[in-house]
């Protein structure tokens, strides 16, 4: 039996039906939190995740919505509060890539990655903050990336958004610290999900050579760290970026 340290808490996880988001939602449910999973497009996978979370003995709702849309982000947050009468943990996980070298990158590919990966996090934070300030309690965890720290050829849009997430995290952490709200970021390295599955074997091999621990990460590796940041075990930590990357960035 897990120690249910998040019993009675409500957590929103954006992009929570697969990959890292799903692992985060399942881990928070293991610890007893009620879960709101946000998803962009419906399908059988949503029903399956709901069932998996319910099997952990917590309550769960799924809310469709595009985080890059200000109104839809508001609806995600409102649905959580309507359903559970509280919102204690927000995990901004939803993200996309549209890779390409700067010489070839289309303006719309730059815009859409910033819009989802950076503005999406802003939108959810913006709608969540008044509620967390009022209850004088909250944990906001933003999923950045190591490329937001190091940059990456072919990912200027994505790296800019993920670096932006770090600036957003640190600024909001400073603003909300006195209000009982902790704001931190997790920067994954190379994690095996649908997002990285599409990369060529050459890129995967080059990445592996860059990882001192000599293995790719699993979504659960991120879930564990997010769970720590979502709990009161990390109550003296705010404004930090925690790399979970097998030593890629030391
Ligand atoms: P993934 O593609 O498997 O999952 C991303 C999820 O976000 C999907 O469920 C997708 O539907 C959802 N999503 C995308 N756009 C959305 C929108 N506008 N509104 C709502 N939901 C939306 O990818 P993943 O690897 O699980 O990535 C999760 C997060 O971790 C992303 O922010 C990603 O940038 C970050 N990350 C991943 C890695 C990695 O190696 N996989 C590394 C660093 C950071």
From TrEMBL:
Keywords, in A-Z order: Fatty acid biosynthesis, Fatty acid metabolism, Lipid biosynthesis, Lipid metabolism, NADP, Oxidoreductase
Catalysed reaction, written as an equation: a (3R)-hydroxyacyl-[ACP] + NADP(+) = a 3-oxoacyl-[ACP] + NADPH + H(+)
Keyword Ion transport listed: no
EC number: 1.1.1.100
CDD domains for this protein: BKR_SDR_c (cd05333)
Cited PROSITE patterns: ADH_SHORT
Record domain Ketoreductase: where: 9-189
Pathway membership: Lipid metabolism; fatty acid biosynthesis
Keyword Transmembrane in record: no
SMART domains documented for this protein: PKS_KR
Example of a GO MF term: 3-oxoacyl-[acyl-carrier-protein] reductase (NADPH) activity
InterPro entries to which the protein is assigned, alphabetical: 3oxo_ACP_reduc (IPR011284), KR_dom (IPR057326), Sc_DH/Rdtase_CS (IPR020904), SDR (IPR050259), SDR_fam (IPR002347)
Family the UniProt entry places it in: Belongs to the short-chain dehydrogenases/reductases (SDR) family.
Its biological purpose: Catalyzes the NADPH-dependent reduction of beta-ketoacyl-ACP substrates to beta-hydroxyacyl-ACP products, the first reductive step in the elongation cycle of fatty acid biosynthesis.
Record's subunit section: Homotetramer.
NCBIfam families: 3oxo_ACP_reduc (TIGR01830), PRK05653.1-3 (NF004198), PRK05653.1-4 (NF004199), PRK07231.1 (NF005559), PRK12826.1-2 (NF009466)
Name this polypeptide is given: 3-oxoacyl-[acyl-carrier-protein] reductase
Organism: Clostridium mobile
